[in-house]
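Deviations from the work plan: none for this task. Representative record:
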Amino acid sequence: MITGMKNTFAQEQSENVVIMQVKPQTCVSLHEGQECFAQIVVNWQADLVNDYCLYSTQTPDPVFCWENVSQGTVEYELNTKENVRFMLTQVPKTRFMLTYKPYAIIAEARLNVSWVYKKKQKSRLSWRLF
Amino acid sequence: MNTLIKQRPMYYLSLSIMLFFIVNAVVFTVNAKEQINNKFSDTEDGGFFEVTAGVVALDSRYIDAPKDIGLVADLRFRYYWNNFFLEYEGFKGLGFPGIGYNFYNQNAWMFDVFITETHPAILWDDEGHIENGVISEQDGLIGITPRDSDDRISLRATHFIDDTTVVRIVVAPISDLKGMADVSPYLAGWYGKTWQHKNMNFHATLNAQYYNSNMLDYYYGIAGDDISDKFESYKASSGISVSAEFGVAYPLAKDWLLESSLKFTRLPDSIYNSPLINTRLESQAQISVTYVLF
């Protein structure tokens, strides 16, 4: 999944077009509700050099932050039962300027979680065993 | 080719019913896609259907059987309709598609009455090889009278100890081997456990099956016209077979699985000296790709 999103808060100064992608795009586990494990690689590229942070819906803390860059890559292993949304934010240089929205999301990507067996059933367990 | 085929009315009956269930399953699947929260309890109408293909290596129990490696393709399905169910667990299962009725499903217990095959037929063929994971046509057995499959009405209890552990018991006291209902106890029990490491799902099962003397003597005894220079007279008594299986399933993609398993079966002592038997420890290994239709 490739999601491009214009930097809304930076548009007044200049347009910062950001492209971000997540690989793999889908994590497949055996059963619905089961933890799915994936080695995630997030790539992004922006027009402007700045400070950026990558967040996910799994944790309120940033996954990774970069300073004075226009592109970045982070790779890590995650496990999840639900879809994970990744959000790249631009850290404003001048946070005291109230006209700017700090930490606005400038790009998004998503890891979708899927299952081979869509239904969590007791009988599915016995099905696998006997 | 001299193929001995047993007429199995229950088999064809089950196939007819199976077709009925499959048609219903397709309709059900189309409807299910329109539902947002598609949740089911274990025995609500619906089910699953998967196709598997792969390689099986088998060291058969039968005398002069080839240590064969072959390609297999198989179906596995289970479908519920108003508590009636049809299931076929492929060559790993007990036998041909079982037809049954679930009359209790509360908490961690399920009870079913169903008809299934508790011992496969023994046939022979000059060109016999692996068929659906089992060497069902044994060229090493040329000359013996074919043995029919043992089709029984069974009571099955399944207890879910927790989300990863299951115990199952099958009691089937009535046999049709003599062409009529005959008291011939058969008892089987399974203990199964699954666990997950990353996206790999491992499973291990232990199984024991008790066969009474009539049943084992029918399949592995030698008498009458079967007696020859190769097959001496033999009478089998009752016995217990035990088996252990270890397997792994890995999801390759949505609807696709890679599966592998290794299974060992120790035959009952009472048939080990049968002229039809070659090895006490039967083994089977398989690796396959499975497509889950629904």
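Chain B has one domain: 9-292.
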